[in-house]
């Protein structure tokens, strides 16, 4: 728990959010500024700054997170038509919040390549 991290504070409940899934390891909540009909952020409860900070010891955590993400996608009705998962990483990746987060985007057709 990093006291200055907004996503750590969302996990703890200190900052309100619309949670759609949580367990002892990960939390999923609606993005405050959605860019698609479904826009959910899936994060580990433990503070990891970015994908670039992932360590070998995070293997199980990240596997758990991805499996949880697929459950959320299904519960949001996205599994038939599909969806996109985005992990902005660092400066060039356009990451704004320094707690690793997986954007789950769906409910419309996505363009490629991204900007
Ligand atoms: P990124 O640019 O990949 O770091 O994405 C950060 C995301 O966090 C953006 O899509 C924001 O809209 C979202 N966000 C920031 N603050 C909050 C918040 N308090 N609750 C929900 N989503 C947030
Ligand atoms: Zn954090």
Give me the secondary-structure topology.
Elements: H1 6-12, E1 19-22, E2 26-30, E3 38-44, H2 59-75, E4 83-86, H3 90-93, E5 102-106
Antiparallel strand pairs: 1-2, 2-3, 3-5, 4-5
The structure holds adenosine monophosphate and zinc ion (ZN).
CATH topology: HIT family, subunit A
The CATH homology group name: HIT-like
> What structural class should be given to the helix and strand makeup?
alpha+beta
* CATH C-level name: Alpha Beta
Major sheet size, sense and barrel closure: 5 strands, antiparallel
Overall structural domain count: 1
Number of strands: 5
* Structure ligands: adenosine monophosphate, zinc ion
Distance between the termini: 32 Å
Description:
This protein has 115 residues and is an alpha+beta fold. The chain has one domain: HIT-like (HIT family, subunit A), CATH 3.30.428.10. 24% of the residues lie in helices and 22% in strands. The protein has 3 helices and 5 strands, in the order H-E-E-E-H-E-H-E. Strands 1-2-3-5-4 form a 5-stranded antiparallel β-sheet, covered by helices on one side. The chain is globular and about 35 Å long. The N and C termini lie far apart (32 Å). Bound molecules: adenosine monophosphate and zinc ion. Adenosine monophosphate (AMP) binds at residues 6, 15, 17, 31-33, 41, 88, 94-97. Zinc ion binds next to helix 1.
Short summary:
The chain has 115 residues and is an alpha+beta fold.
Keywords:
HIT family, subunit A, globular, binds zinc ion, alpha+beta, 115 residues, binds adenosine monophosphate, 24% helix, 5-stranded antiparallel sheet
């Amino acid at each position: 728990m990093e006291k200055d991290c907004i996503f750590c504070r969302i996990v703890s409940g200190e900052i309100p959010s619309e949670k759609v899934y949580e367990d002892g390891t990960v939390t999923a909540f609606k993005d405050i500024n959605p860019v698609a009909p479904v826009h959910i952020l899936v994060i580990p409860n433990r503070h990891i700054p970015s994908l670039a900070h992932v360590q070998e010891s995070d293997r199980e955590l990240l596997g758990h997170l991805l499996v949880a993400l697929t459950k959320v996608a299904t519960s949001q009705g996205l599994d038939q038509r599909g969806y996109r998962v985005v992990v902005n990483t660092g400066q060039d990746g356009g990451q704004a919040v320094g707690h690793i987060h997986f954007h789950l985007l769906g409910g419309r057709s996505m363009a490629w390549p991204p900007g």
